[in-house]
Amino acid sequence: MEFIIRAGGQTGVDKGTLDAALDHEETMRNFNPKKAMQNITITGWCPKKRRSEDGPIDKKYPLKETNTNEYNQRTEMNVKDAEATLILLLNNNKDYISTKVNCVTLWTFRIFDLFFANFA
């Protein structure tokens, strides 16, 4: 069974997810080299020139660049290519991620929402 991690390489959860997948890959390579790349495929789309809110996305992340530097295109392409989408929300604020929700409604059947309370 193939498990695909697809992310856009942006700050926070995207980079954390990619880092965890890369760490898993390295661990598997050290303990069982034959299975290193069999468990998880790491991929995703990022804006042209690896644009991110906190500077260019590190090349250690195996992401493909879109043909524009727009975040919305990256989001749509990642959602379109995914079998399911996990959306993490703070305070059940769907307006905050309206682009992603619109893309998910167009392109995928499985949506997983996790809502977090604002502890600040």
TrEMBL record:
Pfam families for this protein: cpYpsA (PF12694)
Cross-referenced InterPro entries: cpYpsA
Query: What is the protein name stated in its UniProt record?
Result: 6588_t:CDS:1
Cite the source lineage: Eukaryota, Fungi, Fungi incertae sedis, Mucoromycota, Glomeromycotina
